[in-house]
Amino acid sequence: GGDGAMLRHLARKLRASGPVTVAEYMREALTNPGQGYYTRRGGVGESGDFITSPEISQVFGELIGIWYISEWMAMGKPSAFQLVELGPGRGTLTEDILRVFKQLASVLSKCDVSVHLVEVSPKLSEIQAVLLTGGKVQANPEDECVYMKGISKTGVPIFWYRDIQDVPPGYSFYLAHEFFDALPIHKFQRTEKGWREVLVDIDPQVPDRLRFVLSPSRTPATQNFIQPEESRDHVEVCPEAGVIVQRLASRIEKDGGAALVADYGHDGTKTDTFRGFRNHKLHDVLSAPGTADLTADVDFSYLRKMAQGRTATLGPIKQRQFLKNMGIDLRLQVLLQNSGDTATREQLLHSYDMLMNPEKMGDCFNFFALLPHHRLVHPDKKDKPESKSPLPPVAGFNELLLK
Ligand code: SAH
């Protein structure tokens, strides 16, 4: 163990077989089964390395819970749905959503709800199990797919998986909050000789120090991932995010449901966004791998391209706008009125500011959704435009209409 173990492991590997792609480096640093950052630390939260919206305010998860109920109603109240969360962190978001589901039990009364968590980190899945079930879980060593199961404090069955492909098919609402930004990216640099991939290598001058180098020629990734019309000089691509979005889109097309993706990102315009966080401070991505969170902005234009055809997409829309549309201002007023002491009120206002202020998380975080085509356009709209009642708008991307 120890914080130098990952670096020594990588240095040995680089000396033996040469530089690796940034994607391979990121995968090792974050999810190596023995020494990866998420495997060992997974520092989400105030005491960790980075703080996320669900950890800042319960209102965030509650409004997302309302989004799913609103979509469930708009889609004709199917008799069952799975809530599938990718990378649930400490489990806070799911807990806040389940609280809303319980509060609105009369609305959901005849619906069979189950929760499916996709999590690779044993450490974080343990934290999730304690928070969501009070620790009453069954480990499932025989089952290749479901590695743990339990019942939430609100009575909903919960299952844990390592891969989205292990989640059973069925009508599902998917959630990915700060998940895609943790997946490995490839980095490319335009040079006079054409596109080159950025690689991670050992520094020959300093023992056990890493450095970036450019591939001497094109790599398979430069051929596959750079668009011919690309105008930027530096590009980051996350093929794993592309594969997962393709899976989500085909599952939604086949079995119904929707996916909500929330992350910081851009629409195919940014260049160098790869960075590290440790103890809430920026951290050199190449130093002490395994001890810091590594992350890159999500390219929503790429996700849209990967979904295309199979589902419709909405967004990206800024977090500030999405939460406003979901009624965060009204929710804040109610909570302020119900809180007796000044300290609680100040806390509520402070967390609202963190989520909504354009200088804080309001502008850089975005919401993006995958929805079945028929959710946005009547299948026979072209032929008989007047024959059907209009489809209800999708909340968050439009104002929430409460009936
Ligand atoms: N959604 C949470 C946590 C974000 S941190 C929040 O917003 O607070 C990223 C999460 O994704 C962690 O739970 C991490 O363990 C998980 N994760 C990272 N890579 C993963 C992968 N390849 N498959 C499944 N989960 C992964």
Automatic annotation (TrEMBL):
Species the sequence originates in: Thryothorus ludovicianus
Biased composition (Basic and acidic residues): 378-387
Function per UniProt: Arginine methyltransferase involved in the assembly or stability of mitochondrial NADH:ubiquinone oxidoreductase complex (complex I). Acts by mediating symmetric dimethylation of 'Arg-118' of NDUFS2 after it assembles into the complex I, stabilizing the early intermediate complex.
Family of the protein in this entry: Belongs to the NDUFAF7 family.
Matches recorded under SUPFAM superfamilies: S-adenosyl-L-methionine-dependent methyltransferases
GO cellular component: mitochondrion
Residues covered by region (Disordered): 378-397
Protein name as annotated: Protein arginine methyltransferase NDUFAF7
A Pfam short name: Methyltransf_28
PANTHER family: PROTEIN ARGININE METHYLTRANSFERASE NDUFAF7, MITOCHONDRIAL
Location(s), subcellular: Mitochondrion
One term of GO molecular function: protein-arginine omega-N symmetric methyltransferase activity
EC number: 2.1.1.320
Keyword Mitochondrion on entry: yes
Keyword line: Methyltransferase, Mitochondrion, Transferase, Transit peptide
Top enzyme class: transferase
GO biological process, one term: methylation
Main location: mitochondrion
